[in-house]
User: Fold Cadherin-20 from Polypterus senegalus.
Amino acid sequence: MDRGDGSIRYILSGEGAGTMFTIDDNTGDIHAIQRLDREEKAQYVLRAQAVQRQTGMPLEPESEFIVKIQDINDNEPQFLDGPYRASVPEMSMTGTSVLQLTATDADDPTYGNSARVVYSILQGQPYFSVEPKTGIIRVSLPNMDREAKEHYELIIQAKDMGGQMGGLAGTTTVNITLSDVNDNPPRFPQKLYQMSVPESAPVGSVVGRVRAKDLDVGINAEMRYTIIDGDGRDTFDINTDPTNQVGIITIKKPLDFESKKSYTLKIEGANTHVDSRFLNKGPFSDVTIVHISVEDVDEPPKFDSSSYYVEVAEDVEIGTVFQIVSAKDPDISNNSVRYSIDRSSDRGKYFYIDLTSGALMPARPLDREEISWHNITVLAVEMTNPSQFGTVSVMVKVLDVNDNPPELAKYYDAFVCENTKAGQLIQTVTAVDLDDPLAGQHFYYSLAPEAANNPNFTLRDNQAKLTYSVSDNTAFILSRRGGFSQQEQSIYYLPILISDGDQPMQSSTSTLTIRVCSCDTDGNVMSCTAEPYTLPVSLSRGALIAILACIFVLLVMILLILSLRNYKKKPYLTDEEENVHENIVRYDDEGGGEEDTEAFDIAAMWNPREAQLSKIRQDMVPEIESLSRYVPQTCMGESNVHSYVLAKLYEADTDLCAPPYDSLQTYAYEGEGSVADSLSSLQSVSTNNDHDYDYLSEWGPRFKKLADLYGVSEANDVLW
Assistant:
């Protein structure tokens, strides 16, 4: 229908019309106006139609046709997941597969060789290789050692066109790491280690560390350290630090430099995970020797016992040794030790310890009823280094001695009815005793000897006769008669003798007060107050006043007589004499020096028995009782000197009237600055100047003797 005259116009529509393709409306030729890429779109569906140019009427139905893009080799192979990472165990055999690579080519695999890919290795030989068709990377060199080289970088190429000339190629990087296997046994860098530790280090302290080096890593380098031999196996221990794979040597038992100065340990370090494939490389363990020196430390004294327990009777005499504690310096120097008591544990100062021997003795009387247990702390101090001291606990149990008499348990408010009959129970009494005998307490009751024949009351001891369903250690007070009367006697005092059954027997007398009361027929008390007593009518008020006046005058006379006696005892002193200052202090318990043969004999300090037989001082009367009465009168040794001193100390502490043994007297009434100047003759010896003592005669009668001696002629000079 198209005659070429331009009356027909061609129209193109469909995929890519106007963008990728265009049509010549005169000729109907279709042209591509952009570069076509098969990998983006392999075909296009287009529609074309011829219409009348003038009217636009179609000349035929629309035609559809498909334009297919023919492939050319314009895309190189690509590794979409690269770069790659892989690992393979060291020492792997040749041919061990490491990783498979796949390259993608966008060209049409059905058309020619554009999409046929071949793999090759550009970098990484001779350690690894790649299969050309499959892309599998394999180990090509045996016995690769991680410790020598751990990381490898491979470059793999993929080329299309079957690897022929002109083919396109793509590359990727593969990083391969050799993973560790246990192919290296551990080795100690030293065969001998020298260590030291002070003997005062506590149990559990770290002495040192050892480490066996292992070139492997991770689980293949895990170690276990043990002590397999040596004389210190029982004294030291070794533990493995799982983090650093280090053997930590610690103390298992206390150290003592004086008993053992050094130890030797044989330590083994072994892998915990062994690979059987590499057993031929030797034992996966190693041993080393550790020599440990113990350093000497100045240690505090140590007691021969961790604690002491002793039982002491409460009647033990002061100064009696009841326990000897012993401590010694554990050092080689073996310094002397001195003992003392920690006073915070013995605030009552009940005990004394000998400074050098450690003998414990009571310093004051013990009383179980006051304190039954004493827990004292004894100190042992080095003489050369007081900062070093040891302590020990001494538990003292005070044993009971029957030293307390039984007494009535309480104050009894006893009464007897006026209508009481003979033999009627008045009161049940019981007693208490501070002592605690082993066999238990048993009391015996009786009336005091002065009341044995009491006509009013009697006592029945229930210890021997159990009546009225009453248990032991009680007694009944019974009426012996009836017909009591408040008018005759309202109160009766009944002395009761109570004794215990222990040795030595102790007894006491307690008085029971019994009131006479008015009671009803059932025995209930109605009144215990006697009717008021009225004075006779014949005694007037004036007579009572006269009696009181006489008593007052008598008291005044007695007071007057006493005041006159005190006045006579005071010596008469003139005003001049009262101005003279003198103090005369007399110590009757102190000797007068070597020439005083009447003074106190020092032998009394060693033997009180001889002190009693020695002659008594004749020039004065002792004002203080002998302080040796607490000292046992037996043959005394060195330890009994302590007993004597302790007894004197205790008596001085408890006697409020005794003077102190250490006194300081200040005489401030003569010397330079005073009216009399110095009375000493010491300075007069060192000077040749004559002294004029005439002023002594002006000082009164008290200095008359001195005035006579110093006031004579120069030929008779006398120096004091």
Remarks:
- The first helix runs from residue 541 to 569.
